[in-house]
Amino acid sequence: MIEISINGEIRALDGEMTLSQMLDTLGYRRDQGFAVAVNMVFVAIDKYDTTTIKEGDAIDILAPVQGG
């Protein structure tokens, strides 16, 4: 088990996994339109499969905001 922060909430995962695996586990689909930052660095969608989430990482999942 590892502990990470997702949008400021501490969560436990079964172990290290890729960003794609973590998003799948949390129920996110890539067609939902969101951006992800790991330790305050945005990750390009094409890097989700190769970015490993580790103990203590801070993940921010951000949805676009519409406004005028």
General description of the model:
There is one protein chain. With 68 residues, this protein is mainly beta. The protein has a single domain, classed as Beta-grasp domain (Ubiquitin-like (UB roll)). It is built from 1 helix and 7 strands. It has one helix at 19-26, and strands spanning 2-6, 9-13, 17-18, 35-38, 41-43, 52-53, 58-62. The strands form 2 sheets. The chain has a 5-stranded mixed beta sheet, with no helix packed on it. The model has no long low-confidence stretch (mean pLDDT 92).
- Any idea of the CATH topology? Ubiquitin-like (UB roll)
Tell me the CATH superfamily: Beta-grasp domain
- What count of helical segments does DSSP give? 1
**Span of the ends, CA to CA:** 43 Å
Spatial strand order of the main sheet? 2-1-7-4-5
Write the layout of secondary structure elements.
Blueprint: E1 2-6, E2 9-13, E3 17-18, H1 19-26, E4 35-38, E5 41-43, E6 52-53, E7 58-62
Parallel strand pairs: 1-7
Antiparallel strand pairs: 1-2, 3-6, 4-5, 4-7
